[in-house]
Amino acid sequence: MAEHLQRNHGVVFKSAVALLVCVLCLIIEVPVVEGRIRHYKWELKYEYKSPDCFKKLVITVNGLSPGPTIRAQQGDTIIVEVTNSLGTENTAIHWHGIRQIGTPWYDGTEGVTQCPILPGDTFKYQFVVDRPGTYLYHAHYGMQREAGIYGSIRVALRDGESEPFAYDYDRSIILNDWYHKSTYEHAVGLSAPNSKFAFVGEPQSLLIQGKGRFNCSSLTTPSLDPSVCNASNPECSPYAMTMVPGKTYRLRIASLTALSALSFEIEGHNMTVVEADGHNVEPFVVKNLFLYSGETYSVLVKADQDPSRNYWITTNVVSRNATTPPGLGIFNYYPNHPRRSPPSVPPAGPAWNNVRARLDQSLAIKARQGFIHTPPATSDRVIVLLNTQNTVNGVVRWSVNNVSFNHPHTPYLIALKENLTDTFDQTPPPDGYDFVNYDIYKVQNNTNGTTSNGIYRLKFNTTVDIILQNANTRNPNNSETHPWHLHGHDFWVLGHGEGKFDMFNDPKKYNLVNPIMKNTVPVHLYGWTALRFKADNPGAWAFHCHIESHFYMGMGVVFESGIDKVGKLPSSIMGCGETRGVRP
């Protein structure tokens, strides 16, 4: 009898969960199809690694960095049990590009959707991958991502469905930049008073799928231990991608850099862009693909060159006058040896300061015919976010509308759901700045800069426009590229432009016919980017610059909508701040 009741209670519970998911899916027009369960068990721990020949402590996922690739089909449920074996360090993992429909508590953003995973604890993430495409995962605690916690998520179409483009093989590449200092050293420098402020500086290397090459002879203080930097270490042998001549390859290329904007090139081969952040793109051909941290693309490449040799894969820093050498890999034509160096000099790459070329690529990305999700013709609210550098209370900060973001001790999702109003500032940040008088081309005093953990409250299911406005930094004649990432939603990219956004004339130029939908987009130097999204996913969601140091220094905001529609919170996300007194 007891067994019968237990079984029935399980059926009732599962039915209730299924009903909730169905309702949420109907609200935001997601088809419900039962999928498989993909179960992973991961252990995070520090290990000595030499990804660019220089040995340092790296956070690995099951001994790997990049970590294991998650492969799934649309509609599958992903379960990842994460054990924190870091000893003295908390953690959290964000599933970048996964909207977390019905599971906002598993977005993996410490301070926003969950308390951190404590050392020795195991945390279970469980969510549905509702759309096919190319996505990512990475740490979302402090600046831990740059310590090595990152990897790919590949979601295939359901059985019987096909892509609107043909290819023979599917490959994934993550591009990254790499520092020899620890995240703790970086954090100390960034948090120091203005007179002792130390920026992270340019990275020492660029990695292609976790492999790079640092010039050990360039060390100013050579170590007595030759193992500290060993150019013959097989860990830092160039990444090689083996291709069968005549075949077409889908390359899923992503960037998870801590700082750098990048170009990507395969010597002698054109690339046809067909996907961006999980959405099909009207195909266009590039020689160099520009990527910004948090972006994913799929390109088609045909192995149609001379098969008797190999070719260079190169990635270079753009948008910064960097000292970082190019990242090199080998495009290996079978049956040549994958470590056989190409006979040519690696391509030089595009000029780092050619803003026009990068802007042209941004403007070229449109939704593919037959896969257009038409945006609402108008919005209910417009929020303009001015990106600036400020000195606040004697500390250098990045700010939005002169407000620099601080994480609260109690995660927003829990505070909002449990009505813990004293855990964060109830005054929302401003919707704009002094459009008329602010000169984006000059260094500004920004004396009214402040810090806050206030949030934007959005009316559920309304349409919101976000205008990202770039400006001068604290240094004369300097503006920086910022890739902005939105959690829990995709947005339509309505336009990019140069100079100050014109509230009256620029909206007339918006692309409302075939705009691409993305979750990460750059705002270029001294330029603007216009986005539109529907606040139709209940929860609390971060929107921030995806450059590690910039978000650490306050370049982000949080949106809340439909919190009353969020289901019962799991007890596993609690345990910090005021959540210690919350009964799940």
**CATH architecture designation of the largest domain:** Sandwich
Cα shape = globular
- What structural class do the secondary elements suggest? mainly beta
Amount of helix:
under 10%
**Which regions contain 5 or more consecutive residues with pLDDT less than 50?**
1-32
Report the mean per-residue pLDDT as an integer. 93
Annotation field: number of helices? 5
Number of domain units: 3
> Which CATH first-tier class of the largest domain would you pick?
Mainly Beta
- Strand line-up across the major sheet: 10-9-12-17-14-15
Give a short account of the largest sheet.
6 strands, mixed
As a percent range, the share of strand residues is 25-35%
Cα-to-Cα separation, first versus last residue: 29 Å
State the CATH topology of the largest domain.
Immunoglobulin-like
- Number-wise, the strands total 32
Work out the radius of gyration: 23 Å
CATH superfamily of the largest domain: Cupredoxins -  blue copper proteins
InterPro entries: Cu-oxidase-like_N, Cu-oxidase_2nd, Cu-oxidase_C, Cu-oxidase_fam, Cu_oxidase_CS, Cu_oxidase_Cu_BS, Cupredoxin, CuRO_3_AAO
Pfam families: Cu-oxidase, Cu-oxidase_2, Cu-oxidase_3
Keywords: Copper, Disulfide bond, Glycoprotein, Membrane, Metal-binding, Oxidoreductase, Repeat, Secreted, Transmembrane, Transmembrane helix
Subcellular location: Secreted
